Amino acid sequence: MHMKPETLYADFFGLSERPFTLLPDPAFLFWSKAHRNAYTILDYGILSRAPITVVTGEIGSGKTTLVHHLLKSTEEAITIGLISNAQGGRGELLQWVLNALSLEVPEGASYVQKFQKLQDFLIAEYAAERRVVLIFDEAQNLSMEGLEELRMLTNINANKDELIQLILVGQPELRDMIRSPKMKQLAQRVSANFHIPAMDEETVTEYIQHRLRTVGGQGDEFSIGACKMVHEQTGGVPRLVNQLCDIAMVYTWSKDERKVTEDILQSVLDDGLFFTASFASEESDKT
Asked: Does residue 177 sit in the same domain as residue 240?
């Protein structure tokens, strides 16, 4: 069978594309109660001019997809810079910020010159009645020094108005970093925060059905028992749910069957193709 990777079993099930790919895609955003709450916090952080907003969640919990949805939905009067996986010491983070806002500085520019460039831009945006929001995705990769540098950026203001707002999105360890005694001043500037928990059994079932229907399916391509088993094996982490469901649909297709059952999922597990199962159970135990 020679099929494109992006279709694979999709045609067999009458789907427009594979419903369980691993790439973040706003088109597949499933609005669980937790995701609605997380998005509300993100939106509230922007509207309330919160200096720093923090959203955390496990790997694959849908944080980046939420960020992409936010980018599409933000009003035009807000300038947004997205920084993904920023790392480095003093000065390097500032360069990431300048790049995200498409601000150019001469090669070899000093830290002071870079900071002045940013400050001038923020003041100009403020004068034009625009607000600037910086989103740091995978913010747990920032060092303590980097987080402190971000706090310093929030000190740039005009009268009593904030000229820049920060949204930090990352894995649970980001919360631990911010709660560190060394980060007390940063923590005091966090006005809104939310943690996305793993999905429970009912939400996993709704999630699977939602993704199937998004690509033209009926939503019942997985039996209820299979959905329950997916939750047990993944701990409710969306990325792991996608991985297991994708493999299960390949197996179902190869057996020329139309419904993913517990027996098919067991075959996937017995053949060792879902090697993150043990990791998932460990993550489930933590929640």
From this structure: no
Per-residue pLDDT of the chain (287 residues; tens, 9 = 90+): 444 545 779 999 999 999 998 777 767 878 888 989 999 999 899 888 899 999 999 877 888 888 888 888 888 889 999 998 777 666 788 999 999 999 999 988 999 999 999 999 999 999 999 999 999 999 999 988 888 888 888 888 666 677 999 999 999 999 999 999 999 999 999 999 999 988 999 999 999 999 999 999 999 999 999 999 999 999 998 889 999 999 999 999 999 999 999 999 999 999 988 866 444 444 444 44
Q: For tokens 């831009």, name the residue.
A: 121
d(CA 126, CA 163): 7
Q: What are the Cα distances from residue 198, in Å, to 63, 168, 226, 256?
A: 12, 19, 18, 33
- Out of 142, 173, 196, a domain closes at 196
Range of the domain at 108: 33-196
Domain count within the chain:
2
